[in-house]
Design brief:
The protein is α+β, with helices and mostly antiparallel strands and 89 residues long. 28% of the residues lie in helices and 26% in strands. The chain has one domain: 3-Layer(aba) Sandwich (Rossmann fold), CATH 3.40.50. The relative contact order is 0.20.
């Protein structure tokens, strides 16, 4: 399994869909400058604790929530988009 930071840095993707069955928490360790290499993320989160950490890290990194589904059990999907002023950070 590759390190998520390395995958993002090498991907050249415009959109990332993350569905890691609870491992999406690893995104909170990715440096902001690396997260901003991809402009949009769709992330399935599997607990309210992970949701809160992911929301905080992406917000601090210059992303805004563009859509969030109502939780089904403990699972919800959050879509983030990089805000224009964050692109040059």
């Amino acid at each position: 399994m590759k390190n998520v930071t390395r995958v993002i840095e090498e991907s050249k993707a415009d959109v990332a869909k993350i569905d890691c069955e609870g491992a999406e928490d690893c995104l909170v360790t990715v440096p902001s400058v690396t997260l901003r290499k991809i402009k949009m993320y769709i992330i399935e989160v599997h607990s309210s604790e992970i949701r809160d950490r992911v929301l905080r890290h992406f917000s601090d990194s210059g992303f805004r929530v563009i859509k969030e589904t109502d939780p089904v059990g403990s699972v919800s999907i959050i879509s983030f988009e990089l805000e224009r002023e964050a692109i040059s950070r």
